[in-house]
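User: Working on a comparison across species. This one is NADH-quinone oxidoreductase subunit F from Pseudaeromonas sharmana. Can you predict its structure so I can line it up against the others?
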Amino acid sequence: MIVTAETHPLTWRLRPDRAPIWIDEYRSKQGYDAVIRTVGKVAPPDVTTLVKEAGLRGRGGAGFPTGVKWSLMPMDPRFDRKYLLCNADEMEPGTYKDRLLMEQLPHQLIEGMILAAWALQTYRGYIFLRGEYVVAADNLRKAIVEATAAGLLGKNILGSGFDFELVVHTGAGRYICGEETALINSLEGRRANPRAKPPFPALVGAWGKPTCVNNVETLNNIPGIVLHGVSWYQGLNQGKSKDHGTKLMGFSGRVKKPGLWELPFGTTAREILEEYAGGMQSGYQFKAWQPGGAGTDFLTEQHLDLAMDFDSIAKAGSRLGTALAMAVDHSVNMVSLTRNLEEFFARESCGWCTPCRDGLPWSVKILRALEQGKGQVGDIEALEQLCVNLGPGKTFCAHAPGAVEPLQSALRYFRSEFEAGIRQGVLDNRRDIAGVQPNLLEQRW
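Assistant: Here's the predicted structure for NADH-quinone oxidoreductase subunit F from Pseudaeromonas sharmana:
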């Protein structure tokens, strides 16, 4: 596969030895050319219009149109303090795309943030980084020092009169910080609870000021769009999808070559699994997959020929999410896998609203009983009701609805594995009753 700036705008600069690309090498590969052409020379609203026309959608999982999000930020000069936040709190199990970009291409993220800051006229930016990403933090901080020394950050960038400073802020390790308002609370030094919306961050965000929150991969797309234009960006998917541009996609699990690759939207999951990831390891058969992280619905082999884009995966009953898929092999019990996922989500709940705080631990308790063969009649129905009660619109934020996606889909496609846990529990109860009160056995059963 030939990798060029025209076909792989996110990854073409990567070195074979995976070493970080510092400012001299980055600038020799068209780095900061978009900033030089734009800051102080192109009107900020025109940059927003360009991003909107390109059709860039958020790469954090939700897929909200980036240009539309930018257009919600007030441009009235009276709003003299506005913030740009980069959501780098990559804690979705099975997801590691942003780590690659930050560790090896820190200047690409910085360039994207400078362009976004110019478009939004924000004076300060924060990269809210997962605390465990120590290497990424070190590399980003070094890159910020380099960019500042080169006059690309700080006061009067490139003599334009525009000021923008950038700070790396490491979090304390909470999954809920991936929700943008919980991230803002944490940044302010508060407990990482989501906020009520409205008001939305675009009007009342960090420290009560207008704030825009974008994902790492989203911001990495901006330099290419500004440099090469709308038609180029929309042509990257080769007509395979209504979603424009490229996406970091991958497969993990018991595949021969787990990893991630920059691919055009519309590439099928089967192509990624078989051609890029090399298929399943010897002795393991494919059973199911999650398209984009732990908080997406399971799909089956019949869905592998779907295009990896937002609409196609949504129509199949799941979400594209981060587009880093996980393959489940035939040796995995779906009850155990689902219990493991729900245990994670229950532990990471902020505890702010009752359905999430109490419902997720309840699901774990039932799943653990089923896993141990101690399930009771009605357990599956209870889990299905929990999926409804924790669904969209029933909780304060999207944590619980995302948490029950793998559960509801596992029940849909692999119900027999859950029923097996109940049957064993019923048999055990029968034996217990028969040994203690034989006459009662006949009455109950």
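For your comparison, note: The CA atoms of residues 223 and 253 lie 33 Å apart.

User: Helpful, thanks.
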